[in-house]
Automatic annotation (TrEMBL):
This is Cystathionine gamma-synthase. Residues 487-496 have a biased composition (Polar residues). Keywords: Pyridoxal phosphate, Transferase. One of its GO terms (molecular function) is pyridoxal phosphate binding. One of its GO terms (biological process) is transsulfuration. Residues 447-486 have a biased composition (Low complexity).
Amino acid sequence: MDLDPETTLSLAGQDLDDTFNSVVPPLYQSAIFQFEDVGETKGYDYTRSGNPTRAALEDTLAGLDGGAGAVACATGMAAVSTVTSLFDAGAHLICAHDCYGGTERLFSCLDDQDKLSVSYEDLSDRDALADAVRPETAALWVETPSNPLLRIVDLEALSEFADAHDLLLVVDNTFLSPLLQRPIDYGADLVVYSATKYLNGHSDVVGGAVIACTEALADRVDFAANAHGTVAAPFDSWLVLRGAKTLPVRLRQHETNARALAHFLDERPAVQRVCYPGLHDHPGHEIARAQQNGYGGMVSFFVDDEQVDVEALLRSTEVFALAESLGGVESLIEHPATMSHASMAPEQREAAGITNGLIRLSVGIESTDDLRADLSQALTAAGAEAAASGYDTPVSAEAQAPASEGTCRGDPSTVPAGGLEASGRCPPCAPASTFYSPLSASSSSSSSMLSRSSAARSNSRFSAASSISSRIWSTRSSFWSSERYSTTGSATSLES
């Protein structure tokens, strides 16, 4: 029976307990396993090499991502480190110039030790990319959306470039999760996650994962993780697996809130620019529509730090917690220049566009109104806007009306002529699920996505496609099917 991703996550790990048929996956909190006889085991001997609880998580992640295998790691950086260990000494990597600060820190360390050399480029610039390739170049390292500027790059185009130059394509998909983007469908060889973030979703464990597109590559990753000891502990694996069961529900609310806040901030006079791929004026909006199933829960924005007291803004939020990390149920606010990306050299931050006026939000699942009000009062406290009671929302009165008072407020027909739709923006109050069309819909974007996916699967690198994937991901966009989740009962285009 083919299962949708949300069903797969709900049932994940239920087949672990043959003795008592426990519905909740059991925790095998054991470092060692007794041999049946000399040279004979039941599949496990030492937890660093393998553990049933970790294996349940790995099988689930491999299936969701369309990979042939996965390795659960101790942290997101352990996952990154595991992948870098696959390259020969002296190999060269080309990395996105606005990558996560922790990734850049590790790459710089390896570069300083002459183990790897790394070039940082704008991966959307094909000419710069071509100029960066060297004889020893081994891989492209991509984040899309990037951290913290949410830049989008065309994965299919990068895959074609990687194939032409015999490079591995490694994609950090932490910001979206496999429910919103499956890089392997577009030609990625390896997908990396910080499982601390959306996959777990509760900020109570650190973890990571690497998913490989072929069995041969999965075996190499598994060997490296075992040899370097970067694997996840059983209890950590159990926590990530438990958290992942609610991923579909959480993602919908994350995105509902992120959409609303992106539009809200876009109307604030103190905000210079909002970085959110769901805004139609985002440079990567069309690519995001084609290769993603949604836009996620991360929003970044720039303020004029000569007009706005950035530190006062960060101190003044009451709902948003001032903290690093992302993807948990709670909303977080952080300052990349002094927090998540503080380890980057100042000139590198400047080249990437990470300025003192950049603020990053990890939007949680709280009340949308509370989050909007919190940002409004914090901007006021920072001197960004004249003091006022409450806040002015850019949403029309009709669009703000509760669903119980009439037509769903996510229905574009409720937006008056000349309102938000006329400006090319989505109604910010709409539930995220009302903006997704089934992949089978006859829209140009759906056709494009199908052709991309088919092309990726026909690539010779995908000859060892996972049977898990084909069993549980029969319809790629089923998670965000508008027909199933729309409150209006009709499929609404992403353009809505």
